Amino acid sequence: MKISILGTGQWGTALAQVLSDAGNEVAMWGRNPTVSTEINDAHRNSKSLPGIELADSITATTSKEKVFEDAGAVLLAIPSQSLRENLTDFKAVFPTHLPVISSLKGIELGTHLRMTEVIQDVLGLHEDQISIITGPNLAREVVMRQPVGAVAASTSQELADLTAELFHAPYFRAYTSTDVVGCELAAAAKNVIALAVGMAIGMGFGENTQALVITRGLNELTRLGMARGAKPLTFVGLAGVGDLLATCGSSLSRNRSFGETLGRSGSMEKAVEGATSTVEGVATASSIVELAHSVGLEVPIMEAVADVVTNTITPTEAIIRLMRVNTGAEIDHQ
User: Fold this and answer.
1) CATH number, span 2-178
2) pTM, rounded to two decimals
3) Helix, strand or coil for residue 266?
4) Which pairing describes strands 2-6 and 100-102: parallel, antiparallel, or unpaired?
5) 190 belongs to the catalytic site
6) Which of 18, 130, 229, 239 is 20 to 30 A off residue 155, Cα-Cα?
C-alpha cells in the first residue's frame, strides 16, 4: 500500500522507514523544500535524523495535492499543537475517504481535545475512520531497527488490525487495542511526567526520586484516563507504562532532556534556547492539567510541571511543593 505522511520531522521519518521496511510505498509531505529534496535525491533527512539512510521507496514533496496521489492511508506526524492549523490548510484536498493514522501525542490547548478528536472536528470523520500508533518508540532506536513494540488502536477493530499490519516490519511489532481514549491520554501525559523526571535528574537527584516521580506519575495518568472512560489495563501495557518508562528513562527522549536542562539551569529561557525540536510535554502540561481539573482530579506532579513551564514556580519550588503533598493510601482498591 502507498502511505501518505504529513510531516518530515524525526518521528515522521522514523515511521516512514518502518512502513517502507514493512513493504509499503511512502510519500512524505513537508514545508521545507531542502528537506524534501534531500530525501528524494540523497535518501537522507540530515536535519531530523543525521546519519540514517532511507529506502528508495520513500519520497517527499512540498505539494499538498501530490502527496496524496494513489494513497491508501494517511499518517499524521506533525506537532500536536499545530494539528488543527495544518488540517485546516489541507481540508480542501484531504482524501477523507481514506483511513487516517495519528502518531501525535498531545492534548490541544484551549479545547482539551485529544488528537483523534481534533481530526474528527476538522475533517468531519467518524471515529472508526481513525487509528493511532503509540507506545515506547524512541525515533533514534526505531531507525536503528532495534526490536520495538507498539500499539495500534482504533474504535474499529478492523482498522486497528490494518494499522498493525501496515507497520509489521521484522523489528517492529504492533499489538491492537480499541481503547483509543486510554492510549491517547497515556501518550500525552507521559511527556509531562518525563519533564518532571528530567528536572529531577538535572537537579542532581537519583533513582529513588525518579522512581517516585514515575510511579506517582503513572498513578496520575491512570486516574485521569479512568475518569475519562479508559480501560485500566491499558495503563500497564505498552501504551501506558511501556511508553512512560522509555520516555522517562532514556537520554534520547526530548522531553526528559528538556527537563534535565530546565532542572540544571532553573530557567525556562535557557531550556528553550537549547531545544532543537518540538517538546510536546511543554505545550501539553497546562492543557492536561485543565482536563484533569475538569473531571475533579488533582494531579500534583503534572500541576507542578505546568507551573514550572509557565514560569509560575522554579524547579526547586516544585520539588518542595511535591514533598508537602498530603499522603494517604497509595492505591484505592475499590
Assistant:
1) 3.40.50.720
2) 0.94
3) coil
4) unpaired
5) yes
6) 18
